[in-house]
Amino acid sequence: MIKRLCFFLLITSDTLQAQLIDFQKIDFRRADSIAAHYKGENLKNLPFLAYKLTSPLSSEVEQFRAIYTWVSTNIESDYDYFLQNKNKRQKLNGDKQALDAWNSSFQSKVFKKLLKEQKTVCTGYAYLVKELATLAGINCKIIDGYGRTVGSNIGGKGIPNHSWNAVYLNNQWYLCDATWSSGYFIVPDNQFIADYNDGYFLANPALFAKNHYPLDTAWILMDTKPKLSEFLNAPLIYKHAFNYQIIPVEPQEMKIQTAKNESITFLFKITNSIVENDISIEIVAGEEKRTIKPDIIRNSMGFLEMKCRFERLGNYDVHIRITDRNIATYTVQVKKNK
Fold it and tell me: Omega before 251 cis (within 30°)?
């Protein structure tokens, strides 16, 4: 445990400055109010939209905030396009030439739909953030790679399926994801729910790397970078981890094996704002669910440790939760003692 903890401190020590905390003294309410004022603006004249969003603001970070908030709260994710692209990429995975041809033709349709209907997929969000930022004189790039969700890139070899942005502010690069900030789908109804999530704005690279893995690993923005296989097999991390700024440290893999009556230790890097009484562990086996309040140890370095013991054999989904919101998921196989 001590070696793993030291390794985590090593990989995060160079990232603690490249996140939203750098701008904690800046009040973003004015930028957000400008974005709200221009809600519903069309995309026919992007230079004029960029001017309206940024000209009243003096700092680049506030200007980028207005752009990011506007895109995240005015553009709707298109589930049909998302599904079409996902299925095609899965079919063509391994055939680079055919995949490149598909990406090129599909992007053309994505941009036309974006400009006409203000509906798109991740590529469109990333494109629009970059275009508006560039028009405002802000250095911004599109980053392509692997996005990890309940239905994507869980184990296996992985499929590149997502795009997000890197932005250069105050002489540093920062990461953000307007797609995942914008809302979520109710899949059975094919319905997009607009629900702005601020957690993906200038996110902590150590946390961002838990569900974003760029094709060019330079954009992980950490000196010590996880391998793709480590990313694909790590615990599943949810959006609320970004809201609470909680980073899973141990176990490092999603799939865990243990023996009956043995305890598993879960270790997280946390912020002081988390209340221990809000933390619970939900254990699911088939249709059976139970929730426990674990014994928790918090140390002075900002790490939180909790233990969970399994008294019955079987396979379990284990959800770490804060105020009944999933933060991380593991799968546990409990075997007989040898």
Answer: yes
Report pTM. Answer: 0.90
Across the strands, what pairs with 172? 169
Can you say whether residue 192 is alpha, beta or left, with left for phi > 0 and alpha for psi between -120 and 50 degrees? beta
Tell me the CATH number for domain 247-335: 2.60.40.10
Instruction: Name the helix (H) or strand (E) containing 84.
Output: helix 79-92
Start-end of H helices in 174-331 = 178-182, 205-208, 228-233, 239-244
Q: Measuring CA to CA, which residue among 149, 143, 298 is closest to residue 205?
A: 143
C-alpha–C-alpha distance, residues 102 and 104, integer Å: 5
Query: SS3 of 118, please?
Result: coil
**Three-state DSSP class for 271?**
coil
What is the C-alpha to C-alpha distance for residues 247 and 16, in angstroms, rounded to an integer? 12
**What are the b/e assignments for 73-94, b being 16+ CB within 10 Å?**
bbbebbbebbeebeebbeebee
DSSP-assigned beta bridge partners for residue 174: 167
| Distance from the first to the final alpha carbon of the chain | 23
**Collapsing DSSP states into helix, strand and coil, what is residue 87?**
helix
pLDDT of residue 268: 95
Cα distance between residue 76 and residue 179, in whole Å: 9
pLDDT tens per residue, range 210-219:
999 999 999 9
Write the DSSP symbol of residue 235: P
| Architecture label for domain 14-233 | Roll (3.10)
